[in-house]
Amino acid sequence: MRRFFLLALTVASFVHARVWNDTGVGTIVFEEAWSTPEIAVTVGGAPALGKTIEELQANLVDVHNHRLALMDEFGVDFMVLSCVQPCIQGISDPETAAAMAVDLNNNLADLISNNTLRFGAFAALAMHNASVAAQELNRTVTELGFLGALLNDYQQSGPNDDTLLYYDQPEYDEFWQMVTDLDVPVYFHPRTNVEPILSLVYGHGFGLEGPAQEFAATLSTHILGLCTNGVFDRFPTLKIIVGHLGERLPSDLFRTDEQLLRQVPLGIPMQRNASSYWLTNLYETTAGNFATPLLQFHKSQIGLDRIMHSIDYPFALISEGQEWVNSLGDVLTREELLELKRGTAIRVLKLDD
Ligand SMILES: *[C@@H]1O[C@H](CO)[C@@H](O)[C@H](O)[C@H]1NC(C)=O
Ligand SMILES: *[C@@H]1O[C@H](CO)[C@@H](O)[C@H](O)[C@H]1NC(C)=O
Ligand SMILES: *[C@@H]1O[C@H](CO)[C@@H](O)[C@H](O)[C@H]1NC(C)=O
Ligand SMILES: *[C@@H]1O[C@H](CO)[C@@H](O)[C@H](O)[C@H]1NC(C)=O
Ligand SMILES: *[C@@H]1O[C@H](CO)[C@@H](O)[C@H](O)[C@H]1NC(C)=O
């Protein structure tokens, strides 16, 4: 009994007293993709200019070599890894998806276990069943020391992959309850759409699928669904992170608020306007969207305390993200820049708790 108690105490203090490479100035980045070799070979799309698809796939799999060397060279203190899109959200069968999520999470925990000074993880979750997702989130956070979850937009489902599950529906309240009980953030990352959306909506314009247009269009709709369906009213402490400078949402709040307010008398269940949730529940990161004037505009709309730096490696280069953020000393005070690079992330990810 006494031995068990001591063991439990050791495990608990291991999880809570996180030791990470806090230089006081380096960045913390957390829209950073990783995958197993089996998943990496299925990743297509357009690599960064001058890079090949083979390099991209190798960079997804690598953690301790090239990736870490770039982090050292360009001043990244700590990186949170997550499974490249669509990952589990692209698996329609619920049992296969749930089993694969557990495998991937164990695999990632093992992989980074010898360097938790530099690496943390977000859980991959099967979202077919809110209760299964909640239990796996709890396991990864309490037993593996994960910092939250990253969901690749909607969960595809059904025998023909054509049932799309959005987490703004009441059956997901059980999941959001666990998220808020654990007090961890959930990152919403875009995914490639299922057929027939791909061909019906993007078939006419080669290149519009993916990050140029499809990602922001599809994911921003899911985020607004969380607002309009009252998820943040039911879970006021819920923290959701949206990458790529908020998938354009904070660029268009005037029109979104004005038009949604017209729907309130028609019965949409949200209790506040959309922009107000950016002050209490939603955060954005700069991942893959290194645009200084846009950052300044978003600062004026939602405040710098809702914005955190990230890179989107290996789809964006570590050098590019780091050189950009370090150039912001021209437009931000030293204190603001430190908050953007690390301060807000330390609190949201609870690195020092
Ligand atoms: C801590 O991070 C910096 C980059 O910000 C790196 O240069 C340094 O080597 C790291 N220290 C350890 C012990 O990993
Ligand atoms: C962690 O293990 C990997 C794989 O064996 C190795 O390449 C890496 O150097 C190790 N890192 C540390 C900090 O020991
Ligand atoms: C979800 O999973 C739980 C626990 O495994 C199970 O009891 C429940 O029936 C499942 N719900 C659905 C809709 O399949
Ligand atoms: C979460 O996991 C912990 C540790 O396994 C367990 O004690 C706790 O009951 C779980 N919480 C819920 C709500 O299932
Ligand atoms: C949105 O709500 C906030 C209060 O929560 C209010 O200050 C603001 O004026 C509202 N914006 C619009 C466009 O209605």
Outline the structure in words:
With 353 residues, the protein is an alpha/beta fold. The chain has one domain (27-349): Metal-dependent hydrolases (TIM Barrel, Alpha-Beta Barrel). Helix content is 45%, strand content 11%. The protein is built from 16 helices and ten strands. A five-stranded parallel beta sheet has the order 4-7-8-9-10. A three-stranded parallel beta sheet has the order 1-2-3. The chain has a two-stranded antiparallel ribbon with strand order 5-6. Strand 2, helix 5 (94-112) and strand 3 (119-121) form a beta-alpha-beta unit. Helix 5 (94-112) packs parallel to helix 6 (130-142) and helix 6 (130-142) packs parallel to helix 7. Mean pLDDT is 95; it is low at 1-14. Bound molecules: 2-acetamido-2-deoxy-beta-D-glucopyranose (5 copies). One 2-acetamido-2-deoxy-beta-D-glucopyranose is lined by residues 21, 23, 26, 72, 75-77, 117-118. One 2-acetamido-2-deoxy-beta-D-glucopyranose is lined by residues 129, 131-132. GO terms for molecular function: carboxy-lyase activity; hydrolase activity. Belongs to the metallo-dependent hydrolases superfamily. Keywords: Decarboxylase, Hydrolase, Lyase, Signal.
